[in-house]
Design a protein that fits this description.
- The structure is a single chain.
- This protein is of the alpha+beta class.
- The chain has one domain: Cyclic Phosphodiesterase, Chain: A, CATH 3.90.1140.
- The chain is 16% helix and 34% strand.
- It starts with a strand and ends with a strand.
- Strands 6-2-1-9-10 form a five-stranded antiparallel beta sheet, covered by helices on one side. Strands 4-5-7 form a three-stranded antiparallel beta sheet, with no helix packed on it. It has a two-stranded antiparallel ribbon with strand order 3-8.
Length: 158
């Protein structure tokens, strides 16, 4: 099985870009890390279908909170019905690929849209967000563990 994630970047990403986890551009994870037997092309096709029927999303960064097992990872919550709906759509769409979530408690009813602070910066409460792209990220590309790579992008178009 291979591990992927699907994200809404705050600024567009390019295919082939790689980042250390702590240096990722700011984004909202729509599909937390999941394992699947599907390949990147199959997932990219599914992602493209969903993106073609999804309008760009306007949202606002909310209050700060601490996530992670030690509650030491600063995030800005994003309360958006559109992002929750997109998460649900992807769970249903990708069900044919039988994804297994690394942290199932962060999917479905446990999904909480947020922007994790990184070395690049953080979202500020009240910051207006215009999300126009979605990206498929390979969380274990070869070679080089720990440097996830963007393998597909799609514009939100509906």
């Amino acid at each position: 099985m291979h591990r992927y994630a699907i994200v809404l970047p705050l600024a567009p990403l390019g295919v082939g870009e790689r980042y250390a986890v702590r240096d990722w551009p700011l984004h909202i994870t729509v599909m937390p890390v999941f394992a699947t037997w599907a390949n990147a092309a199959q997932l990219a096709a599914s992602m493209g279908e969903v993106a073609a029927h999804t309008a760009p999303i306007a949202a606002v960064a909310g209050a700060s909170e601490l996530f992670g097992p030690k509650h030491d990872t600063p995030v800005a919550l994003v309360d958006s019905p559109e992002i929750r709906a997109l998460h649900k759509t992807f769970r249903e769409e990708l069900d044919i690929h039988v994804p297994t979530f690394r942290r199932p408690d962060f999917a479905g009813d446990g999904f909480r849209a947020h922007i994790t602070a990184t070395k690049r910066g953080e979202a500020e409460e009240g910051q207006e967000l215009k999300l126009t792209q979605i990206a498929l990220v390979d969380m274990q590309p070869e070679p080089g563990q720990g440097r996830p790579m963007v393998v597909a992008v799609a514009d939100l178009e509906a």
